Structure formats: C-alpha cells, structure tokens
Amino acid sequence: MANLSVITPIEYLKGVGPQKADVLKKELQIFTIGDLLSHYPFRYIDRTQFHKIRQLHPDMIGAQILGRLISIQEIGEKRARRLVGQFRDDTGGIELVWFQSITWLKKSLKVGSAYIIYGKPSEFNGQISITHPEMELFHPQEKKIGNLTMQPVYSSTEKLKKFNLDTRGIQRLQQVALETIFNTLQEPLPPYLLEKHQLMDYAKAMLSIHFPQNTPDLNAAVRRLKFEELFFIQLRLLRNKQLNTQKYKGHRFDKVGDKFNTFFNERLPFPLTNAQKRVVKEIRQDTNTGAQMNRLVQGDVGSGKTVVALMSMLIAIDNGYQACMMAPTEILAQQHFAGIRALLGDELCTVKLLTGSTPIRERRLIHQQLEEGTLDILIGTHALIEDKVKFKNIGFVVIDEQHRFGVEQRAKLWRKNIVPPHMLVMTATPIPRTLAMTMYGDLDISVIDELPAGRKPIKTVHFYENQRLRVFGFMREEIAKGRQIYVVYPLIKESEKMDLLYLEAGLENLQREFPLPQYKISIVHGKMPVKDKDFEMQRFVKGETQIMVATTVIEVGVNVPNASVMIIENAERFGLSQLHQLRGRVGRGAEQSFCILLTTHKLSKEGKTRLETMVRTSDGFEIAEVDLQLRGPGDISGTQQSGVLEMKIANLASDQAILMEARQSVIEIFKEDPSLSSKKNTLLAHYLNQRSPGISWDKIS
Ligand code: ADP
Ligand code: MG
After folding, report:
1. Mind listing the pLDDT tens digit for each residue in 623-671?
2. CA 120 – ligand 1 centroid, Å
3. What pTM, to 2 d.p., does this model score?
4. Domain interval for residue 487
5. 329 and 403 housed in the same domain
6. Domain identity same for 517 and 421
7. What CA–CA distances, in Å, run from 329 to 172, 286, 470, 587, 595?
8. How far apart are the first and last CA of the chain?
9. Got the DSSP string for 604-648?
10. Ligand 1 atom at minimal distance to the Cα of residue 271
11. Which residue, judged by its Cα, is nearest atom 10 of ligand 1?
12. Distance of alpha carbon 144 from its chain centroid, rounded?
C-alpha cells in the first residue's frame, strides 16, 4: 500500500488487520502508525548479560536466565491458587510462580522447552523463586531483529498476548512500521534547536528507541524524545500565558490608596516577612498593567498567606472594586472571616460571610449589598459561585487551597464580571518546581518561602504503638500547661468501616485515660452532620475541650494557636503531603509545639522514608520533592485533574534538568520572536496552529 505515514490508521500496517487493530486501540490507545511508534519500550534487557541459577540472589533487581522449563503444576485453592513451574539450567533449579492468568499460562507454556526468562529473584525458605517472570521461548537459530544487545520490552496485556502481541510481537510491528514509513518521518523541531541542544534527529531517535545499537545511542534517543515532549508542553503553556495577557484586558489598579495605607500603617500587628513583601509587590505590579492577573501563591502552612490576600483585596477596594475570597470548607471560611475582621477592625471596609448555612434573610441582604456595591469583601465557601451572587464590580478573587476546587468552579468566579477579575489562588501544598512549571506553567507563580520570625520549629518524633503510655504521660504534662492537643486518625474510603471502629476504640481509650470532669474531648469526623461538627470544632477553638480527636477533616487551614501537640495515629498510612499539612495545624502560637507520629512496627521501605523525612525536615518544598520522588507526579495531591502530566516518555520526577532546559529554550524563543513569525520558527508556529488555539486559564489549570 502506498503513501503510508504516521497518520495512517493502524489497520493498514502490514501484519495488523482489523482484529489486531481493534485490540491495539482498546488496550493501548494505538489508533495510527504514529501512535504505535510512540508506544515506547518501558525497559530494555541487556541481552549480553545472562546469569546462572547458582548466581541468583534475592538482592538482585532482576536477572536474565537461559534454562529449561521442566514442569508446571497448579497448587492451592481460591486466593492461594497458583501455578508453579520448575526451571533449571546446568547449575541448579528455581521455582517460577504465577498467581494470575493461570488457565491461559497452562495452555501456552511449553513444558520441556528452553526459555529465556527475566525477573526479580526472591527467597522463600531458602529456595530462590521468581514471580511472574517475563518468558520468551529460546530460538537459537532465529535471527534477532537488528542483532540487538539491548532488547526492548513493551508493555502489553493478556488480551494483546492472545493476539500474539507480546513484547516480541509489538517489536515486530515496530520493525514493519519503521521499514514502511521511515522515509516519511518528519522532524518537528527546527534544525537550529537540534544544534543548540545537541539533539539526535527525530527519525534516528525513533529508530534508536525501538532498536538501539548500544547504550550511548539509546541514551541520546531517549534524551531527544524527552526534550521534545517537554518542549512542546512548555511551548503550549507559555503560548497560552502569552495569549491570556493579550486577550483578557484586566482592571487596572493604578493607585494605592487610603485603605491599604491605613491598614499597613495603623492596623497590621506585625512586620511583614520579606517573602510577604515581595509577593504583595508582585501582585501590585501585576494588577497595574492593564492585563488580567492569574497568580498562584505557594506558601507553607503558617507562612502568612492570608494577610497577603487581604492586602491585595484592599488594593482592589482602593481602586473602586469589590473583592471576594473562597475557601473549601465552612470551618475555614469562618476562620478567614473572623481573622480578617480582627485584622481590619470595623471601620476600614465592610466584610461579610456567605456559606451554605447563612440564614436566608442574611443571604438576601448580602445579595442586595453586593449588587448595590455597599459590600466590599465577601468571604465564603462554594456558596459564592452560585448564580444568584452578583457583584456590582468585582475586581479581585482569592481562592484558598485551590486544589480543593474544580476547574469549573474557578471558571465561574472568573465570569462574575464583564472584564474578568484578577485571580489569586493560594495553596499550602507546596509543589516541586518542575511540577508547578508544568501544571501551572501558564500562571505566574509566587512563593512565600519564609516563616514569620520567632516561630519555634515544631519538634517531630516517631514512636511505635507500644510506646503509647509515654505519649499519654506527655499529653498530661502539656494539658497541665494549658495546651491543647489533636489526635488524628486515618479515615479512608476503602477501609472506612474498620477505620471508624479503630477511631472509636482509640476514643474510648483516650476517654479512660483522660476522664471527665478534669478532661474534655472533642470529636470531629467527616461522617458527622455539619452542625455537630461545627459545634465540636467550636468547643475546641474556644478552649473548652483539651483534646480533639479527628480524622483528616482538620487538615485544611484550621487555626487554633493554643494547640501545640499533633498526634497522628497510624502515621504510616498517610501520604507525606498529608502528614505535612496535619503537622502545620500546630506551631501557630508562641509555645514550643510537637508532632508525634505513631506507627506499628510493620513499615514498608517507603513508609520509613516518609517518617524519616517528616522527622528530618519541616520545609514543605523539600517534603514535596521527596513525595514526588516516592510516588511520581500522578499521585501528588492536586495533580490528578491535570492532563498535562500524562507523558509518554518524560518523567517530571527524574527529568528536571531536561525540563528546565526545554522551558528556558521556549522562554528565549518567545522573547526573541513573540509571534513565532520568523522563518526559522515556522515549524513551531505550525505545531501550535494545529492545536486548538487559546485554551484559557480556567480550562487548563
Ligand atoms: P497560612 O499561610 O497557612 O494561610 P496564615 O495566613 O493563616 O497562614 O497565618 C498564620 C498565622 O501567622 C496567623 O495567625 C497570622 O496572623 C500570622 N502571621 C502572618 N504573617 C505574619 C508575620 N509577618 N509576622 C507574624 N505573624 C504573622
Ligand atoms: Mg491559610
């Protein structure tokens, strides 16, 4: 068939046909020949390296062995059902074990044949075994494709394997694909960039990623393809950012007036940290350009984001606009309201609170005042985005803990004025730089990387459960000093019933150790009616109870300066960023604060790393970096809804250097040629034109 290219549907490739095409689409989302070529190997086996069975050791990450499958036998029942194969070479024997696809394996494994197997050796009762090895029949006479020493391994599925599309089968397709369309492959990057960044050309990289000749060749191909992927993501993000500034006119705040100055000079009870000053300045500059601002403020818990938000809102009011601030929970909205009222006093401007539980009459009054323009600042929850809430002239929107809100919710605030308001989103979940650049590459980012002076660092310790009596003793001492204590339990959907029982048992235990009337305990968890939750919360906030037993509902934002001890039960079950958030609930007052992480003795390696990290540092950015390394980008909180993180080859955790290089490259290109109209950038302009233009901020972040 003539004229095949990357956009040709996969069924037209020789050796594919409708049936295989169908599974390729369903299982791997491969629709075109181009999709097939960008189904890269996820690993390579060095085919020159073989191990003898005698050399196998449980510490090895993986080993390739040539041997013979002597027998297979199914043993055990139900969940213990497994297939066990005896595998031998001339130095000894091991067991191969499978727990899945047993029926299929029994049919397809050839007992008595020679296999090349690959897998991780482990040891059980002194016997070495490999679970779910990769199996490949050994054909000594078969010519290896391209005579490879680095054998690619492709991800495949049981379904694909039934259509002969195991790693070998996919490799054969890659060969056909490359033979068929190699000459049509087009370089998407301009030549000057290849030269500048020393990149292998595209066609060569495609060949080498699938059929590497040697390690340097493979590394060069991988680097090239990663660069390209990250480069085009940054190109899109930075182009969007550029478009947003051009497209959306913004309210120009050109004066700093009475309210800001009065607040700053007369009411602010503490000096701002340098980081706070810097961010306020950045916002002031941004809002005075005539373009609409989209800024993300990252700052650890307690770094003082609220006051920055407040001062920004005052700038808006000084320029004749209204402002609002949205928080993800009722408790948090109430705290912001109380805090901001306390900071502002009664004279400077009018502030109101709107949440789901605001009584109808008050609500109507608020609606009316907003439309008349007699209400300056509105603080609240999701209630703010209802259509009924109309502003006379909203100029500035603050969203706290932005990752708790959906994209659509943010977009609604954006549309509350004809000219969209400036948007300031704040997060206390520090995101590693590389992630932020990719998730929020089209936003401006400010970082508050400094805590107010005089804060005592929180002392964090790790105890095992059997040291709980010591912990109780410590709690008594702290309560005797007048402090309050949080005790937090995990509550996870998948194990909710067990978790609730565990929490109840823990609560009973505490009630015995800390009996009435001397001690009082609040309890708050997500399963309680909102009213009860608020009631219990309020008792703790007012200091009527000394201990608050809670699930992670207290994670976000709650501020009780007198609480100085955070005890986290089953700490090994929490993610790092969650632990960090929880710890941030204490250390807000003048007293020395403590965080006690309680765990069982059974800790995974990753669990240990998390606990060690918590004990070692309280720097949110450092913690986020460890979290990224441990879990990969997809699991970091706040990243789930972000499609930009789905990458084919690059990895934000390990490819930071390439990302920085790619981003810097894009920045320079736009600086030199903002409209990409020069001849050398034609390819880039073409790439962007193919995609839907002007994805707006609310759709992408
Ligand atoms: P977060 O960044 O976690 O939202 P907050 O804005 O709630 O932090 O601030 C935490 C506490 O620190 C508040 O009680 C606030 O009044 C106080 N605070 C903020 N900035 C300063 C500062 N520059 N100096 C002293 N205390 C400050
Ligand atoms: Mg806050």
Report:
1. 988 988 887 766 554 544 445 567 889 888 888 889 999 999 999 999 9
2. 51
3. 0.69
4. 459-617
5. yes
6. no
7. 55, 29, 35, 22, 24
8. 43
9. -HHHHHHHHHHHH---HHHHHHHHHHHH-GGGSTT-TT-GGG--S
10. 23
11. 302
12. 41
